[in-house]
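step: validate -> pass
step: tokenize input -> pass
step: predict -> running
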Amino acid sequence: MTPRFLTVEAVAVVAAGVSGFVDAHIWSPAYSYYSLLVLVVLDVLTNNLVEGKPMVPRNLALRLLAYTVLLAFAHGFAEHEKGLFFLSQLAMAPFVIVHMRRLIISFGKLDLVEPAVADLLQKRITRASEVAAESVPVPEPAAPAPMVEPTLPVAP
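step: predict -> pass
step: emit ->
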């Protein structure tokens, strides 16, 4: 019979190894990466609750894998190419903004946050131009002018 503390220690060593790998190769600091993954999982779960759709773990796992690959490329390029120092933040920001906005909206619809607070937070995250573009109706394109076909003179 193996003592239980060896199992806990083994799990701690594996978790530290995974976290070190994430910090070196996927995203640094690793806790930002883990926070993004938790944000994505919460967003997907609350969206499914709001829409009444069943949870599909495969789709969630594929999304997390895709985000991991994109962040790993961005981190690698930003780390090793001096001219692309901004790429890591440029890659992370849209993921956080989009999922945070959707999570706030879902929390408001599920009454986990006051709807007024959710609306205020959502407006603070969403750019003013996006809000203005959503409220302004897009005009219908004008119909093309009828073409008059030239008539050729008929010889007698």
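step: describe -> Residues 35 and 96 are 9 Å apart (CA to CA).
step: cleanup -> pass
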